[in-house]
Amino acid sequence: MTEIRVPTLGESVTEATIGKWFKKAGEAVTVDEPLVELETDKVTIEVPAPAAGVLSEIAAKDGDTVAVGAVLGQITDGAGAAKTPAAAPPLAKPDAGQPPAPRSAVAPAPVKAPATASELPLAPSVRKLSAESGLDAATVPGTGKDGRVAKGDMLAAIERAAAQPTPVASTAAAVHARAPSPADDAAREERVRMTRLRQTIARRLKDAQNTAAMLTTFNEVDMGHVMALRTQYRDLFEKKHGLKLGFMGFFVRACVQALKEIPAVNAEIDGADIVYKNYYHIGIAVGTERGLVVPVVRDCDQKSLAEIEKTIADFGHRARDGALKIEEMQGGTFSITNGGIYGSLMSTPILNAPQSGILGMHKIQERPIVVAGKVEVRSMMYLALSYDHRLVDGREAVTFLVRVKDSLEEPVRLVLDL
Asked: Which residue has the higher pLDDT, 153 or 330?
């Protein structure tokens, strides 16, 4: 008999929701055949069969929340092995006879752990999360050294608390009770439970608004030179690298140069500390049917424009297929979102916490611009930089956006590192 367990889901991710089972109990399975789909806060993961045989038991049903390492089901060898679970109780009885005594003796230890951990000093990140969420760190079981509460423990506890809809549900029920929808309207309504990813998106965006002193500054950039450069080298670039030359690579390179000059935009607040990131992991927002995800292009300062474009293209394809890995969406230091692909002319992007800055790209539109005293029609784009004013001053934010604008209006700066 082989157990099917929840695999390791990534840093700070401790549980998932059963999306759907691809097999039913009693059906034959082969090694590495997808058995069940798990939904986490960021991605969807397929759990393969660890062995061939018959899926004899399904322990967690669709919609259930399961922790890392939890048993999802069991596979028995051969077609006749489906009856094996019936013989399992005799094996369980000895475990219930003798072993329970030692287990019960060991059980009190975890109960005492939170009290011991509460006496230990808390990390700045834990204190910050405790203050922001209102969750007492002393009530959270710690997995760190000597039972200390780690940042991942707090994040998992906050997510578990946020996943309990009882107060909200009761309030919503009371509201509906006072003001029910007319019968004709109610018949045309459709109530759909939010996916785990959508709930996480909603919570994180609201947390960013509640935590950061968010402010947005705007500018506009003449995209004429970048467009001309793309037109001139489009065919040659595609022939050599096997993909089309897009705009995002130019923006990533321009942002990296600006981040080097204004390091506060590439930093984050951790308690009473400011953590400056001397590396440039740029998150690229990608819209999917399931919701918005932000895969991270790492070490952008060490990648060529072609390497950046290839990575972004790969992320885009896999994001829409739900094939991104959790570690590919962690560790970003700055983010870029492009509302222009949907036709947005101007918007104020929301920070991707705990980052202190996010750049919003928009639609390229021909507009009359005064150049050297003459009115000319230019291909213009509005840029928006949302930033955490607790860390980034207005002067720094404006300077950052101007540096991005200068690099895009003179792309040779990206080549010469000016």
From this structure: 330
For 145, the token pair is 């050294």
Among this protein's residues, is 389 annotated catalytic?
Answer: yes
Instruction: Compute the distance between CA of residue 377 and CA of residue 360 in angstroms, rounded to an integer.
Output: 23
Check 153, 389, 406, 417 and give the catalytic one. 389
Is position 417 annotated as part of the catalytic site?
A: no
Are the C-beta atoms of 72 and 5 separated by less than 8 Å?
yes
Q: Which residues pair with 75 in a beta bridge?
A: 2, 55
Q: Which residues, 6 or more positions from 55, have their beta carbon under 8 angstroms from its beta carbon?
A: 23, 24, 25, 26, 27, 28, 29, 35, 49, 73, 74, 75
Please, which residues bridge with residue 337 across strands? 360
**Which one from 62, 299, 393, 417 is the annotated catalytic residue?**
393
- Cβ(344)–Cβ(362) below 8 Å: yes
Which band of pLDDT confidence, cut at 50, 70 and 90, is reported for residue 359?
very high
Record the tokens describing residue 27, joined without a space.
Answer: 């059906």
Find out whether 255 and 282 touch, Cβ atoms under 8 Å. yes
CB 355 within 8 Å of CB 208: no
pLDDT of residue 212: 80
Mean of all residue pLDDT scores within the chain: 79
* Three-class secondary structure of residue 290 per DSSP: coil
pLDDT of amino acid 164: 55
Give the tens place of pLDDT for each residue, 373-386.
999 999 999 999 99
Domains of the chain, each with CATH number or no CATH: 2-102 (2.40.50.100), 112-162 (4.10.320.10), 198-416 (3.30.559.10)
DSSP string, 130-192: HHHH---GGGSPP-SGGGPPPHHHHHHHHHHHHT--HHHHHHHHHHHHHSPPPHHHHTT----
Asked whether the whole model's pTM tops 0.90, one would answer no
